[in-house]
User: Fold these one by one.
Assistant:
Number 1:
Amino acid sequence: MTPIRRSDTGWTEYRKACLVFVYRSFLFVPGARFDRFGKAVAAGADAVIIDLEDAVLPVDKAQARTDTLTWLGAWRGRHLGLRINSPRTAFGCADLAALAGSAAATRADFLVIPKAETAVDLEIVAEALGRKIPLIPIIESGRALANAFEIAKQATGGVLFGGVDFSASLGADLSDWDAMLTARGTIAAACGSGGVPAYDVPFLDTADTDGLTTSTRKAKAMGFSGRACIHPGQVAAVNAVYTPSAEEIADARAVLAAMDAAGGGVALHKGKMIDRPVILAAERLLASVR
């Protein structure tokens, strides 16, 4: 994966800053179905997320946790994430306790934190694990949206829009693009401020490929870097939207080459001055190249 960079200082520090991996697509797989983990990995998504939260019934959570951590302990691949339960719940505390004492904690590339309400939720997870791992919180409520900028500052792996729970909490229609415009815009702006990728909510109608493509293009235009998927059949369409053309890739590389050649001084590309927003846009584009 090619990283984007975070920094508010000069070019040298900018190039050395924290690296954040950008994924075009996530594919969720239920934590209670460890027999599907291998199939999910082979489905072509940039990353797979094993879900211990919504996809697992309360009575099955303990067994799903055990099976998942056992499977993860033997995992030797890349780009696999784990959605734990909210750290505000007993199930989430149990997930963190099990992870902290398990070899599986070193196998996951990132953790997804559902129902994050404040930045403190992420601090709790990071301190409980005692190791650095990218955290991707899910904004799923009005309170979370009000704290989006603070959450994004602590979201070392990006932020995922939990539109299903968010729309339900408002009594809004998730399928209506305009109804979710404020939420998406706020999350995109918060992630832009924090220098991390924003990821869009899954498209729930798995049979509507045209609708998936259209809404994904709209999300991309708003600044989202990728999207979650709930069915393997959605992955190709999402990846296609977030895959840049050969011309776009060449242009982005030329921008960064011009900046490198200038050694941090003033640089031009196609007669236009290169500034930080142009560099960041080029880095973001190259981060989606596979």
Number 2:
Amino acid sequence: MFDPRDPYERYYWHYESRRPLSMAQIIALGSVDAKTAALIWLLLENGSSLTVAGPTDPQPGVGKTTTLNALLQFLPEGTSLAYMAGMYENFAFTNIPDIDPKTTYALCNEVSDHLPIYMWGRVARRYLTLPAKGYHIATSVHADTIDDVMRMYQRTLRVGPEDTRRLGLVVNIGLVGRLYPPRRRWFSTHFIQPNIDPAKPEAVEPLPLSLWNQVDDTFLYADQAILDDLASWIGISSQQFATEVTRRTEFLEETSQGSGLDQEEMFEVVAQFREQQP
């Protein structure tokens, strides 16, 4: 029987979507658009951590797990995943010399107090501070809005401002309409500003990258000042940033035609895309 307390078995500690989808298929379903996914792709490829948030009133099939697994396709080439063992996690992997924090994402099923396989309290707080040691994290939470995510991390779990600024991307998703089957939408995508504002050293500012417009079912994007900040964080020029976003947007538009490429097909074409990078 699997024992999550055994550090040698942590690499088997993973969960799968009931209905696994690729990012191309998610775009084809209208849950998100290609440009929003392209922005996220570029940030993940450059080491951003990730939180996928869904409603606090749990509903089956909202899509947190599906979304998180689909986005893992965009992690940098050569990335290693360290699967967390929920409340049993002892973080022994951080003491293994062969594990490089810069190329390691710590994957947690969920930050909540619902089940022992999830993380909460001091264990979750330690997990959320892993980026201070150079690791990256990817997890999901129950939170309706970006403000709810920040409140959970900063007030409930008492993660300090400096550590919160390292948590990168936050995607809030949910269900819309009363039709069956339900329609899923990515309500908002934010990137937590990693730089300190000297005038407000304790402040943590989530920058809006994409917001769903329910009036016409479209997405509104970040202004140029925010995009310039993202380019600076990655370490490239604003022009190069725009070029890379456009390349990924066009790629995702092509792969999401019809019902979209499946997961295996996406892994293959993403690898080809990376080989063709200038």
Number 3:
Amino acid sequence: MPISVHVRAGADTPGIAAAVGAAFDELRAADRMFSTYRPDSQISELNRGLRRLADCDQPVREVLELCEEARWRTDGYFDAMLPGANGRIRFDPSGLVKGWAVERAGRLLAERAVADFSLNAGGDITLRTGPGQPEWRVGVEDPADPRRLLAVLPVRHGAVATSGTGRRGAHILDPHTGRPVNALASVTVIGPSLTWADVYATAALAGGSRSLSWLRRQTGYRAIAVDDTGETGSSTLYAL
């Protein structure tokens, strides 16, 4: 997926290029460890029985625990344990690990004194605003017409994550039924953590309108949901 970083203030400060390079190194390391498309990743070897959980690096165990917490937080609408071949359960943390990895890379930028940046991975974004700088403005596209924006979100520090059917079709499954969901066309979640904004967006899409009740209980997060027509509720902002 396309990943970009935009450093707005102090882009010519010494050390910025090295910090950005380190952030991308962090993302490449996460891909090597977690990618379900790489046969040599720890996740792939774990699922094939070639590696025990105890033999995995600490980040794998951390992500497994976060996935279990995500399942609990979302009433089971986020579930990284999927049916695999021969009745085996397959661990696929993709719905959480992208936001988690991008958030870690953003934290690394901040630790290296990059104070004003937007780090965007396929539309899931972590942002920080430098002193005296205007807040970032993040557009939410219409899933029925990506050329049109439904809303523009001002964000000073935090994250924006979107899950939807506009780009990839009905690729999200309801974990309770195993069937693709299409009651909502997209869900965008805004909050302090990209890890959890990404989880909540995915789970809310899986749960449809009934998932908004638990989404409202998540302190510090709010959402925009678009129904499957791309019209009704397209500009509804849920203050959570």
Number 4:
Amino acid sequence: MRSGAGSSAGRVRPRNQWFPFGTGEDAAVRLLCLPHAGAGAAVYRAWGRDLPPAIAACPVQPPGRETRRSEQPLTSAVEIARQLAPEVLRTVRQPYAIFGHSTGALCAFEVVREIRRLGGPLPVHLFVAGRRAPSIPMIRTELAGLPADELAVVLRRLGGTPEEILAEPVMLELIQPLLVADFHVNEIYSYHPEPRLPVPITAFASTRDHFAAPEQVAGWERETSDRYAQLVLDGDHFAIFEKSPAVLERIAADLRV
């Protein structure tokens, strides 16, 4: 047999660092999921089991977390979009949709804008949750200089962080740089008006979300020239995970699969 013949058959395709769980090439539609502050791609791992088989959940891994922990986290939604958008165009098969929660919602919005600037195929739907409309400024939360006990108070008010981490100062100090970077992405964002996106938007709000009240989330309607819908969940900032069956049912209905 000729030397090297057949060697490509066993060659493992390198994993894309942005999509550690793959891009669901065999599904009818791909749902790219961007995480909230301090979280990584694993927060959406269960969605891959709970969505209909026709929809592939494709969690996104930004720099600085989980498998990319050694990298410097990015502090700008625009910069995240500039890096992620070309990867989406290069590796994600159409049709696809994008979902983002909290900081991830803002980044998802900017990714769609960047894809439009690049002239690439837009997603069939944009889903946003736990984030006031991008045109409404966020309240500044200065996390950089907080001692561990005060940081725990802020995170406890926000919700979503396990109590065993909040009670452990060493763990809080370890995650503080990533939280500072992510909160910076969300709070220092400067909104610049652009033409409305020709993409339908579904927004998820929560009744007790102190960071994104339903009336603040409603401003997302101004960002689309297509359909807009809003679903209000009973819960706090992380209600999308507590009420995930309703969220995933709505996503499936909007994607018509």
